[in-house]
Design a protein that fits this description.
With 199 residues, the protein is mostly helical. It has a domain at 1-50. 79% of the residues lie in helices and 0% in strands. It is built from 7 helices and no strands. The protein has helices at 2-24, 32-47, 52-136, 141-150, 156-163, 176-179, 187-198. α1 packs antiparallel against α2 (32-47). The two termini are 103 Å apart. Residues 176-199 are annotated as: Disordered. This is Biogenesis of lysosome-related organelles complex 1 subunit 4-like isoform X2. One of its GO terms (cellular component) is BLOC-1 complex.
């Protein structure tokens, strides 16, 4: 814009000088071709634009876009490699672990059934113990012994009737061998371990 203003000023100055020379009656005589060429050269200055700054900005923006494209392509390559790794390695491992987890879930279900059965057995045994304590009078036994010395002697029939103990029926208790198999015993391994321990 500054160049255009200077060109305009120079053009106006040349026109003013030309007009002044014509008005003042100088002996400068110019042909029509010379005047036309001079005016054309002055007008050519308006068409000469300085596009270096715009070109520099455009080149910088192009370079920045190319850099971003390179980064984007590198990101796409990384995602592609990660995807191939997941499809070839990670996904089969996850499927294998899922199959193993199904086996573990089955064992957990069996363990829950076993724990509930043990809980029922313990509750039944505790019920039997409470009934036995109530029938035998384990808590008041000492008091009865102390009062027996003070009280009168009872008849043999009463003693025999009270001497009868209730029949004990043991509760059905589970066997751990039915649910938990013992570890296999290897004779050769045990002898080797014994030999190492003796040394």
């Amino acid at each position: 814009m500054a160049d255009m203003s200077t060109d305009r000023q120079s053009l106006s100055q040349s026109q003013n000088s030309l007009n002044s020379s014509i008005i003042s009656g100088d002996n400068v005589t110019k042909t029509n071709d010379e005047i036309t060429s001079e005016i054309a050269s002055e007008f050519c200055k308006f068409l000469n634009f300085n596009v270096e700054k715009e070109e520099t900005k455009f080149n910088d923006s192009v370079e920045m876009m190319l850099t971003k494209l390179d980064e984007f392509f590198s990101l796409v390559d990384m995602i592609r490699s990660d995807t191939s790794l997941c499809l070839t390695t990670t996904l089969p491992q996850i499927q294998e672990k899922c199959a193993e987890m199904e086996f573990i879930f089955d064992k957990i279900d069996k363990l829950e059934v076993f724990v509930n059965m043990v809980k029922d057995c313990v509750a039944a045994t505790e019920d039997k113990v409470n009934k036995a304590e109530n029938e035998l009078g384990a808590i008041g036994g000492l008091v009865k012994k102390l009062t027996s010395f003070v009280s009168l002697k009872k008849s043999p029939l009463q003693a025999a009737s009270k001497g009868k103990k209730p029949e004990y029926i043991p509760p059905e208790i589970f066997s751990t061998e039915d649910y938990l198999s013992p570890p296999a015993f290897n004779a050769t391994q045990s002898t080797e371990e014994f030999g190492h321990s003796s040394q």
